Amino acid sequence: MTALLEARRVTVRFGAQAAVNDVSLALRPGAALGLVGESGSGKSTLLRVLLRLQSVAEGHVLMDGTDITQAREARLRALRRDVQVVFQNPHSALNPRHSVHDSVAEPLLIQGGLTRRQIRDRVAALLDDVGLGGEFLWRYPHELSGGQKQRVCIARALAPGPRALLLDEPTSALDVSVQAQIIELLRGLRERHKLAFLFISHNLAVVQLLCEEVAVLRQGAIVEQGPVAEVLHAPRDAYTRALIASVLPPGLNRLDGA
């Protein structure tokens, strides 16, 4: 199966330092791939590469098998529509001067082709899809909780009808109880919309709940990659074992299934 989005032997350098070093990663249609690593491991840089927001020193970025590494903006319209991103901090992701309606409607306005009534109906349906009712349409970010803001961000990402969501630690800025709600929401959305997920996190326990495959990134290089069950329950690399140990209670040596 041709990958929806692929990094092929990608290297990114900032000066003499390689932030991403010879990384190959493929997100297949409908798949859920976790990308884990500690802060500074290169996760966010690789995300920007896949979104074509960061140039590469070596390697290629492909979408549906077509090389888009050097594509100009006009050729990236499919990428901008089909691959949407949800960022870590919902508090900074929303314009405080925009209502919920206007924030979610923004990508629909950019796409064009809909009347005002159609846009409003579409926004209302998207809010329902993420567990927010019509009473949220005209609220502003300061009137929302952190979890509600992240639901709005997810609704905005869904607005263009994407094939994939790139999720950059979307629960780490939220309270623990809210994290669980957002994870369940994402699981349901993936099933309903047949979405592919690239889920970026430092927390292997969360990745286990959402993903079938995982890649472990350390100092810009992938040190281990494979099915979640294999990597998390029988890790080969010492760095992966250390990551697992960091989220386990004392005395346990593996992540329990969930």
> Can you list the strand order of the major beta sheet?
6-7-8-3-9-10
Shape descriptor reads globular
Uncertain segments? none
H-E string: EEEHEEHEHHHHEHEHEEHH
Major beta sheet summary: 6 strands, mixed
Structural class determined from secondary elements: alpha/beta
> What's the Cα radius of gyration?
19 Å
Average predicted confidence as pLDDT: 92
Strand content: 15-25%
Q: Helical element count?
A: 10
Instruction: Compute the number of strand runs.
Output: 10
Helical content band: 25-40%
Distance between the termini: 28 Å
What does this structure look like?
- The protein has helices at residues 43-50, 77-82, 90-93, 100-111, 116-129, 146-158, 176-193, 204-210, 228-233, 238-246; strands at residues 5-14, 17-27, 32-36, 58-63, 66-67, 83-86, 164-168, 196-201, 213-218, 221-227.
- It is of the alpha/beta class and 258 residues long.
- A six-stranded mixed sheet has the order 6-7-8-3-9-10, with helices on both faces. It has a four-stranded antiparallel sheet with strand order 2-1-4-5, covered by helices on one side.
- Strand 4 and strand 5 form a beta hairpin.
- Helix 6 runs parallel beside helix 7.
- The protein starts with a strand and ends in a 12-residue tail after the last helix.
- The model has no long low-confidence stretch (mean pLDDT 92).
Layout of strands and helices, then pairs:
Elements: E1 5-14, E2 17-27, E3 32-36, H1 43-50, E4 58-63, E5 66-67, H2 77-82, E6 83-86, H3 90-93, H4 100-111, H5 116-129, H6 146-158, E7 164-168, H7 176-193, E8 196-201, H8 204-210, E9 213-218, E10 221-227, H9 228-233, H10 238-246
Parallel strand pairs: 3-8, 3-9, 6-7, 7-8
Antiparallel strand pairs: 1-2, 1-4, 4-5, 9-10
Helix pairs in contact: 4-5, 4-6, 5-6, 6-7
